[in-house]
Specification:
Pfam families: DUF2269. Keywords: Membrane, Transmembrane, Transmembrane helix. The longest helix is centred in the middle third of the chain and has 35 residues. With 163 residues, this protein is mainly alpha-helical. Helix 3 runs antiparallel to helix 4. Helix content is 78%, strand content 0%. The chain contains four helices and no strands. It has one domain.
Length: 163
């Protein structure tokens, strides 16, 4: 099944909007995490983790699912295909990494941070609380930037097998 030109443009637009939402949510999570790292105020930390958890379980999950679904549809319904080009395969691998970090990781890490804050009486929290989040956020940001770059430059060409 092939898409008409206008339908393809519409689907590309939807795909790009959800990818932009995912990128914006990632930047927001980075800023909130930076705010946590820069304060000793337990209430600020707790509120930032609460907002991060909410964003990770709503906006990040929704935009991740929508971006992956529209990306698969675009690949299947255009000459690009799912496995014909190396750059698309690279985007698929990066998307699987993003899927894992976005759907499971961010929610689990922010939830664990909230539990640790709620169970700690001290106003000082271990820096280790932030390590998983920073690793996840770095993976998110780098993966998104690489996916955007692959989409623009389309390196490596077509696979010889034509898959």
């Amino acid at each position: 099944m092939k898409l008409s030109r206008n339908t393809k443009k519409g689907l590309v637009t939807i795909h790009l909007l959800f990818a932009a939402i995912m990128f914006g949510a990632t930047i927001t999570l980075i800023l909130l995490s930076g705010g946590i790292s820069a304060t000793d105020d337990a209430q600020v930390m707790q509120r930032n983790y609460e907002v991060m958890h909410l964003i990770s379980t709503t906006i990040v999950r929704g935009s991740t699912f929508a971006t992956i679904i529209t990306g698969i549809l675009l690949s299947m319904m255009t000459p690009w295909g799912l496995f014909k080009f190396y750059w698309i395969i690279a985007k698929e691998v990066l998307s699987l990494i993003l899927f894992t970090v976005n759907i499971w990781g961010m929610s689990a890490w922010t939830n664990r941070a909230l539990q640790q804050i709620n169970n700690t009486q001290d106003a000082i929290y271990p820096a280790a609380l932030q390590v998983d989040l920073w690793i996840g956020l770095t993976i998110q940001l780098v993966s998104l930037i690489l996916i955007y770059g692959l989409s623009v430059y389309k390196p490596w060409g077509k696979k010889k097998s034509g898959g």
